[in-house]
Amino acid sequence: MILDGKGVAERRNEKLKEKIDSYIEKGYRKPTFAVVMAGDNPASKSYVQNKLKASALVGIEAKLYKLEESISEQEVLNLVDELNNDDMLDGYIVQLPLPKNVDTDKVLNRMDVKKDVDGFHVINQGLLFQGRNAMHAATPQGIINLLETYRIDVTGLNAVVVGRSNIVGMPISKLLLDMNATVTTTHSRTKNLSAITKQADLLVVAIGKPKFITKDMVKEGAIVIDVGINRVDGKLYGDVDFEEVLKIAKYITPVPKGVGPMTINALLENVFKRYEENIHSK
Fold first, then answer.
1. pLDDT in the model for residue 257
2. From CA 197, how far away is CA 15, in angstroms rounded?
3. pLDDT value at position 271?
4. Are 162 and 206 contacting, i.e. CB atoms less than 8 angstroms apart?
5. What is d(CA 65, CA 253) in angstroms, rounded to the nearest whole number?
6. Residues known to be catalytic
7. How many domains does the chain have?
8. What is the largest CA-CA distance in the chain?
9. How do residues 194-207 score in pLDDT, each as one tens digit?
10. Do 146 and 191 share a domain, yes or no?
11. pLDDT above 70 as % of the chain
């Protein structure tokens, strides 16, 4: 079965819009959200446009801060300070990658942790790994939301995550562990990778290599979550050889229309979470 991330995200966004509309009807302001993007990375442009479009559809007021590739690190930090001090802003993200002359960790950790709706701040990630209340990174949370929508219980499943980034691999490993899956996190130095992926009841792939996971690397009846978005000759491909793996998987996400829309929905829900906290604290 194909897991319809696009359809699930649309339904969740409709419910989110209803919640936002109910607040506005009561006289509250709109939720506010900002995106900081530096440079002209084509993938980043596409992601950002999708985020801004989705924000408008659910009633979130969104603003884009478009910075030049040549911007200095200090200028980026100055903008982060400005956004941190904006009392009318509920949350914002810094779209990655940043220009090479800018220290990504320094920028992300300069953010107000309460406005970090991407869940990348070291404090949010630390809270996640302590099992405490935290803002979860949007892609991992979107994956969890998709699994829960299809009532896929991961308890006791042998879950294998391919990739160990702080954006996807590490947080999804922790979230699945918290849901009582038995998790193996693999990476570029893993030996006999195919032998490990072949044992997975649930396989999450986030490495950025088109069609890297082939049919012979997947257990029959597995649940396959493909996080990869790779552009090849103008077409989008996931990290999984979708057409072939579809033949043996019990569930699989497509690319596009799989994890991508769920990521954006989770991001918007994170903005709304901070919005509710802000309006009720005043």
1. 96
2. 36
3. 98
4. yes
5. 32
6. 51, 95, 118
7. 2
8. 59
9. 999 999 999 999 99
10. yes
11. 100
Nearest CA to 148 out of 271, 38, 266, 30 is that of 266
Q: Is the pTM of this model over 0.70?
A: yes
Nearest partner of 177 among 145, 218, 130, 142, judged by Cα: 130
User: Which residues does 144 contact at the CB level (< 8 Å), separation at least 6?
Assistant: 136, 172, 175, 179
Which candidate, 245, 169, 189, places its Cα nearest to that of 214?
Answer: 245
Give dist(CA 133, CA 218) in Å, integer: 34
Task: Give the three-state DSSP class for 223.
Answer: strand
Rounded CA separation 119/124 (Å): 6
| CATH code for the domain of 254 | 3.40.50.720
81 & 143 share domain: no
Non-local CB neighbours of 53 within 8 Å, separated by 6+ positions: none
Same domain, 165 and 240: yes
Size of the chain, expressed as the number of residues it contains: 282
**Calpha distance 253→137 (Å, rounded):** 19
Question: How many CA atoms, within 13 angstroms, populate the side-chain half-sphere of residue 226?
Answer: 32
